[in-house]
Design goal:
The chain contains 9 helices and 5 strands. By secondary structure, the chain is of the alpha/beta class. A 5-stranded parallel sheet has the order 2-3-1-4-5, with helices on both faces. The longest helix is centred in the last third of the chain and has 15 residues. Bound molecules: adenosine monophosphate (AMP). Adenosine monophosphate (AMP) binds next to helix 2 and helix 3.
Length: 185
Amino acid sequence: MILIVGMPGAGKSEQSVLIQERLGLHWLSTGNLFRETDDPEINEIMESGALVEDKHVFKLVEHKLRNVGYDETFLLDGFPRTVDQAHWLLDHADDINKHIRFILFLGVDDEVAMERLGGRGRDDDTAEALEIRKQEARKIEPTIEFLKGQGIEIVNIDANDTIEGVFTQIKDAITARVEPGGDED
Ligand code: AMP
């Protein structure tokens, strides 16, 4: 499994779509999963920009990951976001058969991110929610440090580049590390 991480506005979802379409990886976004739920409590938390509580996250993620038959060609977007979630993932890796091969870290400058977010118009993109989302998103830094300390490779991608430029960097990173047809099914 490959993780894709980055601050809001780094272009994670956009790049994930391209990775899925052009490289054939199987993409799962926890943000999209939560957007699909009709639980009013979860919807309210999401719209505020805060992170959903771990008890909900673990339940949903465990169910989804367990039922996905891929490991090598699986792209996980949006999880883990905190050190606790990273611990959970490492502890459950064998059980759910999802092992982190490497992490694509999309680094973006603040000005570029703000400009991109301005044009998006999602329900959870109000100025207030965005500020909270940015604060919550900073938890990714200690999370990455923790995973790095566990010996997991972090691949830095310059996400200030154009969509195609970023995708080329990602494609090179993935093809250098993942065998085509790496999963049997
Ligand atoms: P995203 O599309 O990845 O920015 O996620 C949108 C929203 O879904 C976040 O602002 C959180 O409210 C929620 N969410 C997604 N993934 C997680 C996670 N791993 N832990 C907690 N909340 C999450």
